[in-house]
Structures are given as structure tokens and as C-alpha cells.
Write a structure and sequence with these properties.
Structural class: mainly alpha
Helix content: 55-70%
Strand content: under 5%
Number of strands: 4
Strand order of the largest sheet: 1-2
Distance between the termini: 32 Å
Length: 197
């Protein structure tokens, strides 16, 4: 490993160490807010409606809670407000505006106002036109990563907020609080393979 890669890796690790507690506090603060009194910190009301609609379409309520049930849209607003710098925030606004202008040119209205079938078509097209996240080993990218674009970045944040929420971690996924009792050599059939630690 050359010096440049070592410095880059060290910087990434330091950023992760600093960001970790902030992210946990963001997740915890979303749990305490209700839908009635939620006022976006960064998003406008129209942008918040756009994010909420996409959140609900990607992870709707089924036999398990949906992403709106665990307030992923509130979490995303807080991520944009507290973790993005001014350039990142401007980029988000421009991308939401572009997404909606593409919907207007293709279907005649903004994303939130489209019919369910047209919204599905828009998301399918966005999925096809998005790049893919590169694979990585221990936080280091392997190969040449593609540009993933706004939609895939938003979808990734939705999944992140959903699966790291307390309700999903404790009530949907198998949950084993740490520290806890150690039980070695348990057959996989007894414990299953979906775990949240």
C-alpha cells in the first residue's frame, strides 16, 4: 500500500469514527418526533412530500412496518440538514428539481401528483439508469466505481435509515443485545440467518 492510499484509508476511518455517534443521535431523534408536529429542517414542504412518497413506494407497509412508520423521511431530512455541507445540500435540491422536471416532461406532472402506475414507471426507469455501487473490502472500494446518481443514493439512504431504526432492529429482525450471553455451536436451523446486532 502506498502512502497516498494509507492516508486516504486513515482519513476514511477517522471520518467514520467521528460520524458514528452523530448518526446514532440522528436515528434516536427521529424516533421521538410525530408526524403531526414534524417540520423539515432542510427540505421544503414540497421536497419533503417528494421524499416521503419515494420512501413509501420503496418500503411500503406490509406485514412489517413501512419506512414511513419508522420515520425514514424525517431521518433523511436530518441527514441532509446536519451531515451535508452547502454544496451537498444545493446538489440535493437540484437533483430533486431535475427528477421532478423529468417527470413533468415524460408524464405531465411532478412525481407526487402522478398516478401510482406512472410513479412505478418513473422509479423503474430511474433504477435502470442508475449505476451500481462498487464492491468493497473493509471500507475500501475494489475496482472502478460507477457514478450512482441521485436516485440510487436516496434509495441507499432509505434502506440505511430503515434497517438501522430501533423498531426494525428490535421487532422485525432477530435482535440479540450486546453484551449478552454467549451460546456457542448453535445449529443454524434454531436461530435463522437474519440478524441485527
Amino acid at each position: 500500500m502506498d502512502r497516498r492510499k494509507a492516508l486516504k484509508f486513515t482519513g476514511s476511518m477517522a471520518a467514520a469514527a467521528v460520524a458514528g455517534p452523530s448518526l446514532l443521535s440522528l436515528l434516536q431523534s427521529c424516533k421521538n418526533e410525530t408526524r403531526v408536529d414534524w417540520q423539515p429542517q432542510f427540505l421544503t414542504m414540497d421536497e419533503a412530500a417528494f421524499v416521503s412518497k419515494i420512501v413509501d413506494m420503496i418500503l411500503p407497509r406490509t406485514e412489517t412496518p413501512g419506512a414511513l412508520d419508522v420515520k425514514v423521511d424525517i431521518f433523511i431530512d436530518k441527514v441532509y440538514a446536519k451531515l451535508y455541507d452547502a454544496n451537498g445540500q444545493n446538489h440535493v435540491r437540484k437533483e430533486i428539481e431535475k427528477f421532478n422536471s423529468d417527470c413533468i416532461s415524460d408524464f405531465g406532472d411532478s412525481f407526487v401528483n402522478l398516478s401510482k402506475s406512472d410513479q412505478i414507471k418513473v422509479l423503474e426507469k430511474a433504477e435502470q439508469n442508475s449505476g451500481q455501487f462498487g464492491s468493497g473490502v473493509w471500507g475500501t472500494t475494489v475496482g472502478n466505481p460507477e457514478q450512482v446518481g441521485f436516485y440510487l443514493s436516496l434509495k441507499s439512504t432509505i434502506l440505511w435509515g430503515y434497517f438501522t431504526s430501533e423498531d426494525i432492529g428490535e421487532n422485525v429482525l432477530n435482535y440479540d443485545p450486546v453484551p449478552g450471553a454467549y451460546h456457542g455451536c448453535i445449529p443454524l436451523a434454531e436461530v435463522g440467518n437474519k440478524w441485527s446486532l
